[in-house]
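Internal tracking record. Fields below are filled automatically when a chain is submitted to the structure queue. Please do not edit lines marked as system-generated. If the sequence contains nonstandard residues, flag them in the REMARKS field before resubmitting.
Queue: standard
Priority: normal
Entity type: single polypeptide chain
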Amino acid sequence: MEKISVNISSKLELTRQDIDDLMVTALEGGINYWCRKARVVQCPEEYTYASDVISRNGTLELYDAESTDKWELTLEKFMNGVKWYCEKYKYTNAEDLMDNHDADTADAIVQYALFNEIVFG
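SYSTEM-GENERATED OUTPUT FOLLOWS
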């Protein structure tokens, strides 16, 4: 029998805490093999840790481990990284993403956010 397909889209909503959790995972193990340092460039709201900056619409500067290259990560870029990751791995809701994320997930999200592809690893 012939199959006919249709593309569907869904809205995935992350909480500020979800974003902070993904950033903690990225900064504390996910991106450390290619990123030597993260520096807060700006944050319009009070924060305690660098991992809190993105969810507060701030900007982090990430420094390459082997060169002088650096990249700016913003909330908009981060959410685009989440979109790319969820489309690639077929996540349709935040609960599944958050229940199953690990260092590799956080690394991929940040790389998709910065480069629109996996560059390192």
